[in-house]
Amino acid sequence: MEQKFSKNTLFNFFSGNASPMQKKAIEEWLEEDSNREWFFEWLKEWENEHPQFLADTDLAYERFKVNLKTGSRKKEVRLLHTPPQRNIKAWMVAASVLLLLTCSAWFLKDAILYKTYTTAFGEIKSITLEDNSQVALNANSSLRVPRFSFGYGDREVYLKGEAEFSITHTPTHQKFIVTTPNQLSVEVLGTKFIVYSRPRGSKVILQTGKVRVSNASNESLTIAPGDMVSLDQKGALQKQLVQGVEKYAAWKDKRFIFDRTSLKEITYLIEENFGVKVSIPDTALANRSISGTFQANNVEEMLEMLSDVSGLQVTEQDKVYILNASE
After folding, report:
1. Torsion sign over Cα 126, 42, 145, 67
2. pLDDT for res 208
3. 50 vs 7: which has the higher pLDDT
4. Helix (H, G, I), strand (E, B), or coil: what is residue 35?
5. Selecting from 1.10.150.530, 2.60.120.1440, 3.40.50.670, 1.20.1250.20, what CATH number does the domain 119-246 have?
6. pTM over 0.90, yes/no
7. Domains 119-246 and 254-325 share a fold
8. CA 194, CA 207: separation in Å to the nearest integer?
9. Which residues are in the Protein FecR C-terminal domain (predicted)?
10. Is the dihedral of CA 188, 175, 146, 171 positive or negative?
C-alpha cells in the first residue's frame, strides 16, 4: 500500500480545503485499490476529530444516487454546522467527499460503509474490533464490519467462512449479531462461540455464555455451552449437544482434531482451508474414518499425515490430489 499523501493533506481534502491540483492528484491516487484503505482509515480519524460537522444527508444522498448512475463529477458538498455530537451516519460524509470522484457503484457503497477483513487459503488472521471483541478468522473467509456505525445500537457483522468470536460485554448491553450469506443469525451480549458458514452448510458452536440463533424464517433457539446448532437442507435449525467443543476451534493453532471423521469429510476440510481439490475414487475408502489430533501448516503436511495414518497413496493429476489405498 503506497502512502503518497500526508495525513494533513487528506484532512484538508475532507474539510473541503484542498486545492484543485491536490483533488486531482488524490483522485488519481484512489484509482489504485491498494490506496483506498489509507483513505478510509484517515477519513474515519478525521470524522472522529470533527464530530460537529454533519452532512446534509438528503442532499448528499441524492447526489450520491445521481453519481452512481452517471459517474459525473460534483464540485461542491454542502455541510450543516450542528451542535457537537457524534456523527452516527458519518458514511454520508464519506459519500459526499467521494462524489468528487468517478468511481464504481461497488466502491461508493461497500468501500464507504464497511471494512472487510479477508484471509487467503491456509491463512489465519487475528482481529480486534473497536469494542475490543476478538475474532479469529479461519482460512478462505471474510468478515465485514461497519466503518462508522459499529458500536451505535446493535454491533452487527457479516461473516462468510469460519471464525471464532470472543465478544466483549458493553456497559449499555449492546447486542452483537453475526449474520451469514444464508441468513443464519447469531445474537449475543458477551460470550465466546464459533460460526461456520460455507456453501456446504452452516453451524454455530457455543463455548461460553448464551446465544440466540435465528434463521431466515425467524425461527430461533437459545443455546448453552456445548450446544451446536446447524441448518438442515430446508433451512430449519437443528440443535445437538457436542463433546469437546475445543476441537471446533483447533484450526486457530493449525491443528485438526478428528473423532471418527470420514476421509470424505476431511477432503472437504482440505478444499475449504487450503484451496485444492482432493478426490477419492473408491467409495468404501472415502467412508473410512480416522481419529486423532494432527498438526498441519499446509496441504502437503495434511496429505502426508493422511498417507501415514491411513496407508494412502497420494498422487497428483491436473492439479487434483487423488487418494487411493496403498497396494
Report:
1. negative
2. 94
3. 7
4. helix
5. 2.60.120.1440
6. no
7. no
8. 8
9. 255-322
10. negative
pLDDT in tens, 226-257: 999 999 888 899 999 998 898 999 999 999 99
Residue 211: pLDDT over 90 = yes
Cell numbers at residue 72, please?
Answer: 459525473
C-alpha–C-alpha distance, residues 182 and 196, integer Å: 11
CA distance linking residue 11 with residue 158, whole number of Å? 30
The reply to whether CATH 3.55.50.30 applies to domain 254-325 is yes
**Is residue 308 within 8 Å of 294, Cβ to Cβ?**
no
Cβ–Cβ under 8 Å, residues 245 and 231: no
Domain boundaries, the chain: 7-113, 119-246, 254-325
Determine the Cα–Cα distance for residues 205 and 109; give it in Å rounded to an integer. 32
Cβ neighbours for 305, distance < 8 A, ≥ 6 positions apart = 294, 296
Apex 198 CA angle, 197 and 204, nearest 5: 25
- Residue type at 320 in one-letter notation: V
How far is the C-alpha of 145 from the C-alpha of 233, rounded, in Å? 28
Residue 78 cell numbers, joined: 454542502
Judged by DSSP in three states, 287 sits in coil
